[in-house]
Amino acid sequence: MRRCTSAVALSFAAALLTVSACSKKTSPKKEPAEDKSADKGTDTAAKQPEQPAGGAQVEVFSWWTGPGEQEGLDAMIADFKTKNPGIEVINAAVSGGAGTNAKAILANRLQAGNPPDSYQRHAGLELADDIKADKLEDLTSLYDQQGWKDKMPKGLLEAITIDGKIYSVPVNIHRANLMWFLPKTLKELGLSGPPKTWKEFLTQAAAIKKKGKTPLAVGPQWTQKHLLETVLLGELGPDKYTGLWNGKTDWKSAEVIGALETFKKVLSFSDIKTAAADWQPAADRVADGTAVYFVMGDWLDGYWGRAKKMAFKTDYDVAPSPGTTGIYDFLSDSFTLPKGAKNHDAAVKWLEECGSTEGQDAFNPQKGSVPARTDADKSKYKDYLAVALKDWQDPSTKIVGSLAHGAVANNALNSEIDTALGLFAASGDAKAFAEAVGKAYEATK
Ligand code: GAL
């Protein structure tokens, strides 16, 4: 069936791009069959799967080990295996939400010239760091060969391109600005719905606290940074939020300080003093009714909806984080081909899987994300994901990029923000935080 997506406006970092992605029905080009004539006619040859010249294994590096994430990766690996039975996948995933541990290990491996064959990177400035450091192979010819250029939103391609060369294969689009809850808990508390503004959240939170529940669950520091980005977005709006990452919004302005003060209040209604060890245990506090809300990306839909088999709308529900209706705070997971990959040809096969409709349609419904491709099979995206797909493709949706997940800030700025945020959480000094981040932005741009 021919599918044609509507225009998607992707605006983040310095790039505000209007995207028109209408997929032409071109069958993916087949690779010329390898000449296995020497083996032909033997039983072994008939049973032996085709093996790429570079080796029969591929080491895939990610941080998808936890429930709701692993299932997605496993589904894509399973599809890969059906297409490439001769290639063994070494799943080198390192646990820790948002790649906190994986990124450190990866940095060491890249430094030591020992890259995995393909590794996960967020589209945007996080990936740009590796491109600038000359760590990655140019994948433009793979895009041409696979006909991918008109199968992905142009704005997304921009986020993985430098000097006209494309450096990774996006598998998905996640939404960060979401607030998760159980309808049952809200009902118990006499709340008619989740808060539409952070101001309303603070009012609800005061009442919730009196009733002995935690208004907001948080996890490790990256989840607090994730929360910070959604408070900034909700308080400043999409244009000024984007301005924080392209120099147009002054970090020291009264508006930004005001938003940071709100963040401070929001955090005071969280369980930060006994923060959960990762995003799943934080979500568990909402699932078991100890806490009421959790601001998290839609990988939580994979965790609750698939891994935990909770029913959307009945057992759990979600709304845009306060003040962000009509805005998609996006991030995208992509896979790369590092220079010096030991199993280059098998890595290319892996990337072909990542960019394929079958691969994306196996991965994303499990993962809680929508496909990066615009021609994926819509019928596979149900419940929350049907809404996400509709919103992502709605031309009136405003798209901004995630701070905590590598879209709008490079690694140096992100790490400066981590340090400043640690201090801010302890001191509560919004002005000092704004000053530190403003300086860091200038120093790292
Ligand atoms: C993000 C990543 C998501 C999900 C999340 C939680 O950085 O893009 O795919 O893995 O971390 O671990």
Residues in helix, %: 40-55%
Q: Please state the second-level CATH architecture of the largest domain.
A: 3-Layer(aba) Sandwich
What small molecules does this complex bind? beta-D-galactopyranose
Taking all Cα atoms into account, the compactness measure Rg is: 22 Å
User: What value does the average pLDDT take?
Assistant: 90
- Low-pLDDT segments, ≥5 res: 1-54
**Structural domains: how many:** 2
Number of E-state strands: 17
What structural class do you assign from the helix and strand content?
alpha/beta
- In CATH, the homologous superfamily of the largest domain goes by the name Periplasmic binding protein-like II
Overall shape: it is: globular
Number of helices: 17
**Might you state the CATH topology name of the largest domain?**
D-Maltodextrin-Binding Protein, domain 2
Biggest sheet strand line-up: 4-3-5-15-8
Largest sheet: 5 strands, mixed
* CATH classification class of the largest domain: Alpha Beta
- Proportion of residues in β-strands: 5-15%
Distance between the termini: 44 Å
